Amino acid sequence: MTTDPAALSADLIRCPSVTPEEGGALVLLETLLSEAGFDCTRADRGGVSNLFARWGAKGAARSFGFNGHTDVVPVGDADAWSVDPFGAETREGWLYGRGACDMKSGVAAFAAAAVDFVRNTPPDGAVVLTITGDEEGPSIDGTLALLDHMKAEGEAMTACLVGEPTCPTRMGEMMKIGRRGSMTAWFTVTGVQGHAAYPHRAKNPVPAIARLMDRLASHKLDEGTDHFDPSTLAVVGIDTGNPANNVIPARCTGMVNIRFNDTHSGASLSDWLNAEAHRVAQAFDVDVAVEIKISGESFLTPPGPLSRIVADAVEAETGLCPELSTSGGTSDARFIKDHCPVVEFGLVGQSMHQVDERVEIAQIHQLKSIYTRILQSYFA
To answer: 2 — phi, psi (to 5°)?
Structure first.
């Protein structure tokens, strides 16, 4: 008996698990995994549902883990969809629905591979699945809660694969061995409100925020590294909230987002941002308040045994040798990298978060085969 990953994907899509709602997705997976002999534990926290599942002995010398999420982003305008977003409709070899690409089909593929693997060739070690309902949300009570649960219970993975979509256009062309760090900074410049005809009686915060945003955007953070492109800073907002053309506002805000490589840390960039804000505050005689949120630090799993196992499995099933990339946004691998070596490989991600999100059904089966090869090679 084999587990059909496409049918499982459809069943998961029918669960309306818009973050942070569980929607029945983890209940479905827990039932499947428990029947296959996995020890399953819910590691719910903060209103978020999470599932930890292990086949094999706790503390095994070799313990391969898969990580993924069943929560999805909202559907947006439901009338813009040509299908029911949670109907799991199939058309001409494609499976449609919210989460089809990101990433219920990925979860279905590794769950199906894990179930069939332990049934057919029980490994000398453990297979662990950590599945969260908080990847598309704040990501505070999801994979972090699962890792906290594992630490408290003496559970461990010796290697992990995150099943997020990683391929830009063709199945097999890219895997992730690291991710850039991500942070956002908000600047509030406070001056003195006044009449636009008498600027000498006011302290205008608008030129100050313009100067600060220009200084930040014009600064070259680095030249890139062997595995990372140059870090980037994007100005993503400037606002006064002032509708009057004859009033100098008292306050103006600016917002920037930084994606940074391993030549920086969140702390070092925070120091630079604060120093630039202080410099502008002095130059314009205004107050500048800075608020910074670091979403994740950059990390790299250097090319080695884990990436070779994954790359060899991908090439065997697709004929493509995947590029070892660190591009893209953040993922829950940023938390797992502190626990064990971690890489990412999954589906083509072109339709994720879009209207009529979909996945080619043949790719779901192909992904299960890749994950099966990875398990076979890891435990060989």
So the answer is: -120, 155
Tell me the C-alpha distance between 175 and 189, whole Å.
42
Asked if 106 and 165 count as a contact pair (C-beta separation under 8 A), the reply is yes
pLDDT, tens digit, 9 for 90 and up, residues 304-363: 999 999 999 999 999 999 999 999 889 999 999 999 999 999 999 999 999 999 999 999
14 and 152 belong to one structural domain: yes
Query: Does residue 223 sit in the same domain as residue 337?
Result: no
How far, CA to CA in Å, does 60 sit from each of 121, 128, 156, 255, 349?
A: 17, 11, 8, 47, 34
Question: Do 174 and 224 share a structural domain?
Answer: no
Split into its structural domains, the chain has a count of 2
Residues taking part in catalysis: 71, 135
pTM: 0.92
pLDDT in tens, 263-316: 999 999 999 999 999 999 999 999 999 999 999 999 999 999 999 999 999 999
- Domain of 211 in residue numbering reads as 181-296
Going through 216-357 in order, the beta strands assigned E by DSSP cover: 232-239, 247-248, 251-260, 287-296, 299-300, 323-325, 342-344
Using CA atoms, how far apart are residues 252 and 6, in angstroms rounded to an integer? Answer: 51
